[in-house]
TrEMBL record:
It comes from Caballeronia temeraria. It holds the Pfam family CBP_BcsQ. InterPro entries: Cellulose_synthase_operon_BcsQ (IPR017746), DNA_Partitioning_ATPase (IPR050678), P-loop_NTPase (IPR027417). It comes from the Bacteria. This is Chromosome partitioning ATPase protein-like protein. PANTHER family: COBYRINIC ACID AC-DIAMIDE SYNTHASE, P-LOOP CONTAINING NUCLEOSIDE TRIPHOSPHATE HYDROLASE.
Length: 254
């Protein structure tokens, strides 16, 4: 079993959208997939089919260790096992942050209880980095996908935070999201990012105006617009991750 954290150092990078899309595409490739929402915003379930925000989840276990987080899981139509964060109050979020600070390997130990096969994968959605939740996710991960829109402020923030992120996880790869190659400013920002970090690029995902509309009525862009550039890019990201994971056996891939 491998663990992948999707992390961004800027708000609005599209991290949750990518986590849900990647989980679904990997499940369709025959992988055993767990999508874990470790963001107190608790929004990942909305992308995976929930009509309302999940009331309980892994966040409840942080506040009350006697609660079993795996009792709140559910599986969507594509076979993704979803672990919600849960809807915590501000006081509970502060309490959960304190517990994470006191137990630096808490999430890593919690993930061990999932018990996926060797070829399975846990995808973790996180709040903006740096934060206690995102740092735990990075330290629990075998691979970090650093999601960054090609904007100067977002790229500069990633450059500044990258050394600390690499201390938490040795394998950090870049996902450029919402790319509009017609904008010269974005091309310049990407050139700066490549020069400053020499990061391996997992995938560039082009801006697609119809993506929010697809999600709004419970559909996937790669189903509604399979020939769009963004759909092609999302499949490319799934292929990149699938190739990184241990190979499926013939029976698993069937």
């Amino acid at each position: 079993m491998k663990t992948i954290a999707l992390i961004s150092t800027a708000g609005g990078a599209g991290r949750t959208t990518l986590a849900a899309s990647l989980a679904t595409l990997l499940a369709r490739r025959g992988r055993d997939v767990v999508a874990l929402d470790f963001d107190p915003q608790n929004m990942l379930g909305a992308y995976l089919g929930l009509d309302t925000l999940a009331a309980e989840g892994i966040g409840e276990t942080l506040v009350d260790p006697s609660r079993a987080w795996h009792e709140s899981t559910w599986r969507n139509d594509d076979g993704v096992l979803f672990v919600p964060h849960g809807n915590l109050t501000l006081a509970q979020i502060a309490e959960s942050d304190a517990r994470l600070a006191a137990h630096p390997r808490w999430l890593e130990h919690a993930i061990r209880d999932i018990g996926l096969p060797e070829t399975g994968v846990v995808l973790i959605d996180t709040p903006r980095y740096p934060s206690a939740h995102a740092d735990h996710a990075a330290r629990a991960a075998d691979l970090v996908l650093a999601v960054c829109p090609p904007e100067p402020a977002a790229c500069a923030t990633l450059v500044a935070r990258l050394p600390a992120l690499r201390e938490s996880c040795a394998d950090v790869r870049l996902v450029v999201n919402r790319l509009n190659p017609a904008r010269a400013m974005q091309r310049d920002a990407l050139a700066m990012l490549r020069a400053a970090t020499a990061m391996p690029v997992a995938q560039r995902i082009h801006l697609e105006a119809s993506m929010p509309e697809a999600f709004s009525h419970g559909a996937w862009l790669f189903d509604e617009a399979p020939h769009s550039q963004a759909s092609h890019d999302l499949h490319g990201l799934a292929q990149h991750v699938d190739a990184w994971l241990p190979a499926l056996t013939t029976s698993e891939a069937a």
